[in-house]
Amino acid sequence: MNLSESYKKRLQELAGIISEDLNFISKQDATDRKMFGPVYHGAPQEKLDKIQSQGFKIFYGSGRSGDVSNGYQDTDYSSGYPAPIHHLGYGIYFTTVKNIAKNFNANTTKGLKEYYLDIPRLETINFASPKNMMKWWIDNGYDAELSKTDRVAATKRLTDYLKSKYDAVWFKGTGLKRLLDGDQIAVFDPSRIYQINQDLSKELEIGSKVISTVDFKNVLKGTVGIINGKQNAQQMRDYWEKNNNGTPHWTKNSEYAYEIK
User: Across residues 68-94, what is the average pLDDT?
Assistant: First the structure.
């Protein structure tokens, strides 16, 4: 980042906006780097289009107003205190569950992209009760007393504390039933977000296209598929032959075994 870019980013932060150009990566590279994913970002189509042209932005402000979509209402959440503006502070929110992203995208998968996250410092939580959630917020920098008069400032303190310790926080949202909005993960630095670009996939890498050259079971010759997984075939053969009295494995002399969708 050069000086002018650094200065521009600082001005954005002072204005209550954190912005970053989109990063693109192949699925093979994301897998090799052990990134977190795939994840999806659900939003109205016009916002998804804006992300593609301008990158992700983190907006600070009151919930359900302007560019700050969704958010808790300004009512008593627990112990006489309101909740933060957002469940996990100010950040870019993703989900590992495609159907949840679909719900935030006018109930369609149109425009949804697949992302991977470079977040080695990941915190995972899964609280069900408002009391436990409020305790976690307060333990992580949320100023409950301040929230009574300035929820934005209280949420900003929560966010600053969380991003000083973590790259992202993942609320799994699972119990006997779905908790709150369900699975969600907040990322505090847009530069850690990578969008999958199939064009970056090399031949026979994860994410690349393949075409069936023969009829096989219920797959017809000429069917196009995408490689979703890739394993060392020799390891598979060694395990299989050890546990099946030396019976040859179906991969024969192949170097890799592929999972194709």
Answer: 90
Closest CA to 230 of 197, 196, 199, 207: 207
Beta carbons of 82 and 75 less than 8 angstroms apart: yes
How confident is the model at residue 82, as a pLDDT? 96
Q: Which residue type sits at 21?
A: D
- Cα–Cα nearest to 48, from 40, 59, 39: 40
Within 10 Å of residue 132's Cβ, how many Cβ atoms? 13
Count Cβ atoms within 10 A of the Cβ of residue 40 and give its class: 0-12 exposed, 13-18 middle, 19 or more buried.
Answer: buried
The reply to whether omega before 38 is within 30° of 0 (cis) is: yes
Question: What is the per-residue pLDDT across 98-149, written as a single tens digit (0 to 9) for each?
Answer: 999 998 888 888 889 999 999 999 999 998 899 999 999 999 999 999 999 9
pLDDT tens digits for 192-218? 999 999 888 776 667 677 776 666 666
The CA distance from 170 to 88, in Å, is 8
| Contact by Cβ (8 Å): 103, 183 | no
**Closest C-alpha among 42, 44, 37 to residue 115:** 37
